[in-house]
């Protein structure tokens, strides 16, 4: 097995030559012609893979993923192809760079990934780095529990695993996540704006707040509509991609209204957890959302999963009733827990404070069940 810093997969071309001139000379770099991919890939152990666009990108990514579990893959193309980008990211590609516009930052990016990979002990690596999963919590219906469930999910994930987790609040006008976690933020996601073109792990760690009990990292929203307007879909996409390189799980809390930022986070998501109550209005809203997603080209198949919230005896509909109207997989169900949830909020305290809680409120237990089943 040959150890390498960078493996560039692509045919000889002008693009290939340009890319090679941008890679730091200190890095051990090799070029592999795609026709030798099948036979040669298993003999190489690179820290990062640069894959140049060619025919059969998806199949090649699948092959790389099956042979090279640890190396992040950066895909390089000469044009913007949204559909392809989406498919590649869902296959586990870390980054999609468009040449020549992204050429400037290429060398630095590769260097950062390589130096991080060198510093890490592969044996202690429990999760695939550089390949973090984005889970966006969404619902067309306000007040359906997106913020409560996404904060609780992120916090529980942190308590129940060694994964690196970040919670991102994209309710840019009103915020919300910090109140469920009892945080008084000093910094917000806006602080990333000046450095968005060169986002590093360092920037993310500096700007994020920490939830003191679980040590969950948080990117808090500015709660300022005017400021928020400045942020674009491109900003959201760049932040999420940078987070993929640093974290194992990126939990995004979204508002019900779909603007360009919400759209960016929905497109980038590996999974969309749709929070829904067991009643007719909620199903009606979901139907609207479905047709809107279709119009906007936001895929739901294999991505959208339902999280039944406020489940209890007083629900208008049963799970069976819901299944007659909606066939999405059900990721979890969380009980209606007025006492437990409300007491926490009133005290400004999160629902979990330690890994092995003695007295856990019912909603926290349901959340733990979901998170544990997902981690298996
Ligand atoms: N399982 C539950 N049991 C009891 N109360 C709940 C539960 N889930 C959510 N709530 C309560 O419902 C209210 C709305 O929840 P939350 O703010 O999370 O919804 P949201 O979808 O984020 O709302 P918005 O659309 O305004 O962002 C909160 O007061 C929360 O405490
Ligand atoms: Mg909310």
Automatic annotation (TrEMBL):
Any Pfam family hit: AAA_31
InterPro entries: AAA_dom (IPR025669), CheY-like_superfamily (IPR011006), P-loop_NTPase (IPR027417), ParA/MinD_ATPase (IPR050625)
GO MF annotations in UniProt: ATP binding; ATP hydrolysis activity
GO cellular component: cytoplasmic side of plasma membrane; cytosol
Ranges of residues in domain AAA: 133-287
PANTHER family with a match to the protein in the record: SEPTUM SITE-DETERMINING PROTEIN MIND HOMOLOG, CHLOROPLASTIC-RELATED (PTHR43384), SLR0110 PROTEIN (PTHR43384:SF13)
Name of the protein in question: AAA domain-containing protein
Organism of this sequence: Jeotgalibacillus alimentarius
């Amino acid at each position: 097995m040959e150890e390498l810093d960078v493996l560039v997969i692509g045919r000889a071309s002008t693009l290939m030559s340009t890319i090679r001139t941008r890679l730091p000379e200190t890095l051990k770099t090799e070029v592999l012609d795609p026709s030798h991919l099948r036979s040669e890939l298993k003999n190489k152990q690179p820290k990062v893979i640069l894959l140049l666009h060619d025919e059969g990108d998806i199949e090649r990514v699948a092959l790389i993923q099956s042979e090279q579990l640890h190396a992040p893959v950066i895909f390089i193309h000469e044009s913007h192809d949204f559909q392809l980008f989406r498919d590649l990211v869902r296959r586990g590609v870390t980054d999609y760079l468009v040449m020549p516009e992204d050429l400037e930052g290429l060398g630095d990016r590769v260097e950062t990934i390589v130096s991080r990979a060198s510093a890490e002990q592969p044996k202690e690596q429990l999760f695939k780095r550089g390949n973090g999963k984005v889970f966006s919590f969404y619902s067309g219906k306000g007040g359906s529990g997106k913020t409560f469930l996404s904060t609780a999910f992120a916090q529980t994930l942190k308590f129940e695993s060694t994964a690196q987790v970040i919670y991102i609040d994209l309710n840019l006008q009103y915020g919300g996540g910090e109140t469920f976690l009892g945080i008084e933020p000093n910094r917000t996601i806006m602080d990333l704006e000046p450095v968005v073109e060169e986002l590093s792990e360092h920037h993310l760690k500096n700007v994020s707040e920490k939830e003191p009990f679980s040590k969950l990292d948080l990117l808090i929203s500015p709660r300022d509509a005017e400021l928020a307007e400045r942020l674009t879909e491109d900003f959201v996409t760049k932040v999420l991609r940078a987070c993929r390189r640093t974290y194992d799980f990126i939990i995004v809390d979204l508002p019900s209204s779909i603007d360009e930022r919400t759209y960016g986070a929905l497109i980038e998501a590996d999974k969309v957890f749709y929070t829904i109550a067991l009643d007719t209005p909620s199903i009606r809203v979901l139907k609207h959302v479905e047709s809107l997603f279709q119009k906007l080209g936001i895929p739901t198949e294999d991505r959208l999963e339902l999280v039944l919230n406020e489940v209890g005896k007083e629900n208008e509909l049963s799970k069976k009733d819901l299944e007659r109207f909606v066939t999405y997989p059900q990721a979890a169900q969380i009980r209606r827990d007025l006492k437990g949830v409300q007491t926490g909020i009133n005290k400004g305290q999160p629902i979990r404070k330690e890994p092995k809680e003695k007295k856990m409120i019912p909603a926290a237990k349901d959340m733990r069940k979901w998170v544990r089943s997902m981690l298996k």
